[in-house]
Design goal:
about 20% strand, alpha+beta, Peroxisomal Thiolase, Chain A, domain 1, about 35% helix, 4-stranded mixed sheet, about 160 residues
Amino acid sequence: LETMAKLKPCFLTDGTGTVTAANASAAVVILMKKSEAARRGLMPLARIVSWAQTGIDPSIMGVGPISAIRKAIDKAGWTLDQVDLFEINEAFASLSVAIAKELKVNPEKVNIQGGAIALGHPLGASGCRILVTLLHALERTGGKRGIAALCIGGGMGIAMCIER
């Protein structure tokens, strides 16, 4: 523990407002078959229709969600126009904007709760945070279909299509 205490921090205290702040968080998502939820008397918030992960050049890892979203949409048999809301992790402010622009997605459908810069980017829990934010935003707006997506350091993107 003494050695760990001497490690340099990952984030600067006086960093810019275009990068998410360091956050501490915990999150949980419970996955089960529809039949198991019924047996337990639980109402699922949504079902996973498809998911995909893709690899890209690590130097542009921030745009990894573009290829992952395209692959997940294809697997779901959807078009981007059929998606009500997108929750795209924004480790940096420009990422969700660039991804929405490249996919030609209406920016008013992206991160309607404010995204990671407003809500936080808790490393290790961001995927759960994004999914739960998307689920509640779909419920609040009456939306049916959503996509949660993240870039992954090292050159990956991941996306999940969900349906209420």
